[in-house]
Amino acid sequence: MTSTFPSRRTRLAALALALLTAGPAWADRLADIKARGSLICATLNSSEPLGFQDLATCKTVGFDVDTCAAIAKHLGVALDLRSVSVEARIPELALGRVDVVAAALGYTKERAQQIAFTSAHYQVPIKIIVRVDSGLNKLADFKGRKISANKGSTPELYARRRTEAEVVTFQDPPAAFLALQQGKVDGLALAAPSAVRYVNETGGKFRFVDEPLAFEATALGVKKDEPALLAAVNTALEGMEASGEIDALWTKWYGPNTKYNLPREKKLTPISTFE
Questions:
Q1: Burial of 19 (C-beta count, 10 Å sphere; 0-12/13-18/19+)
Q2: Domains along the chain?
Q3: By the 8 A CB rule, do 43 and 86 touch?
């Protein structure tokens, strides 16, 4: 007699398929954040003024750190700050080790295939720093030359994409700039907010190439398939923009009373604008 009931193996296979199908729907990192009572936010720790160590307190401070703290406050939770290297930003998100990355994370279509981006909270040019007497004045001049950049950064990406130079990568901006100082490379590719201090603090020995590599939209990163968290962070950013909080943080770290004196030229912009 043939049973009309499914076999145990068939039932288990169906259950496994249902679990796989339903799994993503169960994932809700925002709920996890609320339950744990803290937002795990990753920043750099050697990129002044975005995220760097305060020598007096040995704590990581900076624009990105304050941005993380403000978002955590808007979400009603504490901040759990983590340090991350440039090349580890996307893997840390993908592995679920952090909730949000605020670490000079420039938007690219390639990165958007791996992680979700919030709205862009600022946009800056990526510039090349050279020695004053280098004779290098435009991107075409770097053919056959060497340019240093942070490993895994958008300056590295655009230096490879827009010049015919050999790109030499380093773990952080100080190391990349040291290579330029020592004459091991001919230029350093870096986003303007970080690059300004190197030009301003070296006694007129270095300057910017007039032609920028790119104009970079910078946002925060969230793991893909977490729409509730992405929406909550965007809502927090919108509230911060409307209240002037982002402008205040920018003025604190980049304004006229700092060594950078950089204006925040563009307001919060939906990331769909750049897709």
A1: exposed
A2: 27-123+217-274 (3.40.190.10), 125-215 (3.40.190.10)
A3: no
Q: Which tens digits make up the pLDDT trace of 182-208?
A: 999 999 999 988 898 899 889 999 999
**Nearest-angstrom CA–CA distance, 128 and 123:** 17
Q: What is the pLDDT of residues 105-115, one digit of tens each?
A: 999 999 999 99
Q: Where do the DSSP E strands lie in 132-275?
A: 146-150, 166-170, 187-191, 206-208, 214-223
Question: What is the reported pTM?
Answer: 0.76
Which residue pairs from 43-46 have beta carbons closer than 8 angstroms and sit at least 24 positions apart in sequence?
43/68, 43/81, 43/82, 43/83, 43/84, 43/101, 43/102, 43/103, 44/83, 44/84, 44/85, 44/86, 44/103, 44/104, 44/172, 45/83, 46/172, 46/173, 46/174
Beta-bridge mates of residue 151: none
Distances (CA, A) of 63 to 179, 188, 248: 26, 22, 10
CA atoms of 183 and 173, how far apart (whole Å): 15
Distance CA 41, CA 118 (A): 14
